[in-house]
Amino acid sequence: MDIPTHAIPLVAPRLRPSQRRSRWKITALGGGHGLHASLKALRLLDADLTAIVTVADDGGSSGRIRDEFGVLPPGDLRMALSALCDDSEWGRTWARVMQHRFTTLPDSPRSMEGHVLGNFLIVTLWEMLGDAVEGLNWAGQLLGARGRVLPMSTDPLRIKGTVVREQDGQPIAEVYEGQVALAKAAHRGSVTDICLLPEDASATPQAVEAISEADWNVLGPGSWYTSVMPHLLLNDSRRALAESQARTLVTMNLSSSTFEASGLRSADHLKILRRYAPELHIDAVLADPSTLDDEAYFCQVAENMGTKVFFDRVESKAKESVHDPLRLAAAYKDVFSHFESGGVSG
């Protein structure tokens, strides 16, 4: 059955700069649980919202589907869509449906064990429409998503990195390919170099357009090497972020030493961004002061980068190391309003 693609408004009406003061145009970049957290907060603002999602995942249900169907890994895209579901009975129900994970009987072949329903819905739309972007637009319409979800590239990407660890007092450098392998290895050593494969992969044109036309581009939170950094490793995306007239905001994680970034200090996360994208000016960074390991040093590094630090309590009271959507939304609004009111020049 052919789906009439004209039924979906693919692009929201463009706003001229003079018209954007009452409604921010925001692009959020990341993947996984980190992007899910930022989108849950950003959708609470009066904003024209676009999510740009990493497509280098090779683990779990998403990785299995990627290998078996030869498609983009749908898992992070699914999570972004579910985060944007409207806060209504329809939206909340579909968010749960999209995230439903199958559990099979112990004596079954278990071929469906661990798969997520939303992944199959997205792949079905891709196969019917033959277009990754249109498939995600259709999924967003079904879910009543308060924003648009785009893949950072229409090429399934792989991440490669070098991890240095000590053995018998000597440094050993090992190269790992794949998001899962790199994340596990990073826990045992220090990541010294990362890149995306294929190296000549192109960014999704609609994603480049969204970055270029935004008022704000928001990076993070999330796994620094495998969710945040890929957007700066893809040449088209990095160039678009650097050349965009939008301001750039980095949202810090609630723990500096995550599973894949063991041993990193809070300030090191900013240094990594500067190392891989020296041409990108970061206007603001948002951090929960209770989660920084060295606040003074963090502020010094940010100041040296020409970046203004905003502190706010954004951690959930109920769950440790989890962002509270309402608190994070209020913090985002404060940052955006501060710049809009002329609180910071340039």
TrEMBL record:
One of its GO terms (biological process) is regulation of cell shape. It is found in: Cytoplasm. GO terms for cellular component: cytoplasm. The keyword Plastid does not apply. Keywords: Cytoplasm. InterPro entries: CofD (IPR002882), CofD-like_dom_sf (IPR038136), Gluconeogen_factor (IPR010119). It comes from the Bacteria. It holds the Pfam family CofD. CDD domains: YvcK_like (cd07187). Required for morphogenesis under gluconeogenic growth conditions. This is Putative gluconeogenesis factor. It comes from Pseudoglutamicibacter albus DNF00011.
